[in-house]
Design a protein that fits this description.
Helix content: 40-55%
Structural class: alpha/beta
InterPro entries: KR_dom, NAD(P)-bd_dom_sf, SDR_fam
Number of helices: 8
Number of strands: 7
GO molecular function, one term: oxidoreductase activity, acting on the CH-OH group of donors, NAD or NADP as acceptor
Oligomer: single chain
Organism: Chryseobacterium soli
Keywords: Oxidoreductase
Bound molecules: NADP nicotinamide-adenine-dinucleotide phosphate
Order of helices and strands: EHEHEHEHEHEHHHE
Strand order of the largest sheet: 3-2-1-4-5-6-7
Radius of gyration: 17 Å
Number of domains: 1
Shape: globular
Largest sheet: 7 strands, parallel
CATH superfamily: NAD(P)-binding Rossmann-like Domain
CATH topology: Rossmann fold
Domain Ketoreductase: 9-183
Length: 253
């Protein structure tokens, strides 16, 4: 078996109803994952992801708002009983808002941090418990180049993505004793609904400026998903506490 294979692994993915999370689900399945537990709010869109998976992959879904779900541990426990203990987690659920500072409010920071940061680390807390985790596990948090490079209108979003990288690094230290590796992935612009919404919001001229800053053009969801598959696989068994930048050269300038 290739060390890049996800054979025998059960992987939980948030944000699986769209964009990068959907692509992560498909690529985990294509790379031999035994089972997937997929989480999102939109049942219809999540079902579309399920239809894209290889028939051999067992799949369970959880329809939930991860920011308002008091029984999330119970729901995850039920699914673990069915498909087995977890050996991988990708936190893809995220929201993005591009707004001038004068439009930033405490509520905006709260909303963005609730999905992008707190929910991911709370799920990691559940998945680090012995009763749910396999002997070895790997957690991947989707951050963004916005966590490293300044962008106008992104104060709250960038702050949340910086928090993802630094939180994941500390989690890597804390969970190494439990045989859990923790890493983040920082993409630049990727062709997904979140990007379409942002381009609608900032207008044609600003969108073109952003596109010009990507030497290899904007990315496709599978460019990010492939990096996640690597980090989940045993090929990355010595990789923890790192932030893998997948940005078509955006931050190299
Ligand atoms: N696309 C880019 O250019 C880009 C670049 C850098 C980083 N990222 C990051 O990559 C991640 C995925 O982005 P994407 O482009 O794939 O976005 P997307 O297509 O808009 O997908 C976002 C996903 O998050 C889920 N989600 C949002 N709020 C949720 C909540 N409260 N509870 C449960 N699920 C929730 C959505 O599912 P439901 O609506 O069904 O709940 C959806 O599946 C995000 O963290 C984003 O910040 C994206």
């Amino acid at each position: 078996m290739s060390s890049f294979s996800l054979q025998d692994k059960t992987i939980l993915i948030t944000g699986a109803s769209s964009g990068i999370g959907r692509s992560c689900s498909v690529e985990c399945s294509n790379n031999g994952a035994a089972a997937l537990i997929l989480i999102a709010r939109n049942e219809e869109e999540l079902q579309k992801t399920v239809m894209m998976l290889a028939p051999a992959t067992k799949v369970e879904t959880i329809i939930a708002d991860i920011t308002h779900c008091e029984n999330l541990e119970e729901l995850i426990a039920e699914k673990v009983d069915i498909v087995g203990k977890i050996s991988g987690f990708i936190h893809c659920a995220g929201i993005e808002k591009t707004l001038p500072l004068k439009k930033h409010t405490p509520q905006l920071y709260n909303d963005i941090f609730a999905v992008n940061v707190i929910s991911g680390f709370e799920i990691a807390k559940i998945l680090s418990l012995k009763k749910y985790k396999n002997e070895k596990s790997s957690f991947v948090f989707i951050s963004s180049v916005a966590g490293m490079v300044g962008e106008i209108g992104k104060t709250a979003y960038s702050a949340s993505k910086g928090a993802v990288v630094s939180g994941a690094r500390s989690l890597a230290m804390e969970l190494s004793r439990s045989n859990i590796r923790v890493n983040s992935v920082s993409p630049a612009m990727v062709n997904t609904p979140i990007l379409e919404k942002m381009f609608d919001n900032i207008g044609e001229e600003a969108s073109q400026e952003i596109l010009k800053k990507h030497p290899l053009g904007i990315g496709e969801p599978e460019d990010v998903a492939n990096a996640c598959v690597f980090l989940l696989s045993d090929a990355a068994k010595w990789v923890t506490g790192s932030n893998l930048v997948i940005d078509g050269g955006y931050s190299a300038q």
